[in-house]
Specification:
With 137 residues, this protein is mostly beta strands. It is 0% helix and 39% strand. It has no helices and twelve strands. Strands 9-4-3-2-12 form a five-stranded antiparallel sheet, with no helix packed on it. A four-stranded antiparallel sheet has the order 5-6-7-8, with no helix packed on it. The radius of gyration is 14 Å and the shape is globular.
């Protein structure tokens, strides 16, 4: 495990949403999120376990309700601390964790399977019509 690359300052990880960033894997770019948990900050791949092409954070932060991330497409709920789905079509599944380290006021990517690319999501063509939410909050 490396010392990691700094993703952001801890002050930028919201308590009521997520912080979106882009990583590189052997398969290309992917998205990840940081979320505030009871004991600090956790990192997960930005994919709902119900349909893995669906993003939990669609670019403006994922909803958080009672300590759980909410997938706005079908209402699946994932514990911020563990990534375990507690409600919805993928109940019992778990978000893919990304290893991070919080130190010196920053959040660092320390997972050797991922390389930090930039803050924000994957840059895409605005004409690409992705899936939209059918759950209202």
């Amino acid at each position: 495990m490396s010392d990691g690359e700094r993703i952001t300052g801890t002050e930028n990880v919201p308590a009521d949403s997520t912080f979106l960033f882009t990583v590189e894997t052997d398969d290309g770019e992917d998205e990840a999120v940081l979320t505030r948990a009871e004991d600090g900050v956790e990192g997960y791949v930005n994919r709902c376990m119900h349909f893995t092409h669906i993003r939990i954070d669609k670019g403006s932060g994922a909803p958080v309700r009672n300590g759980e991330l909410v997938c706005a497409n079908h209402g699946a709920m994932f514990e911020q601390d563990t990534g375990v789905c507690t409600f919805g079509p993928c109940e019992g599944a778990q978000l893919d964790r990304i290893d991070i380290d919080v130190r010196d006021g920053g959040v660092y990517l320390v997972d050797d399977d991922y390389a930090f690319v930039r803050t924000g999501g994957i840059e895409s063509d605005p004409a690409d019509l992705g899936s939209t939410s059918n759950v209202e909050f």
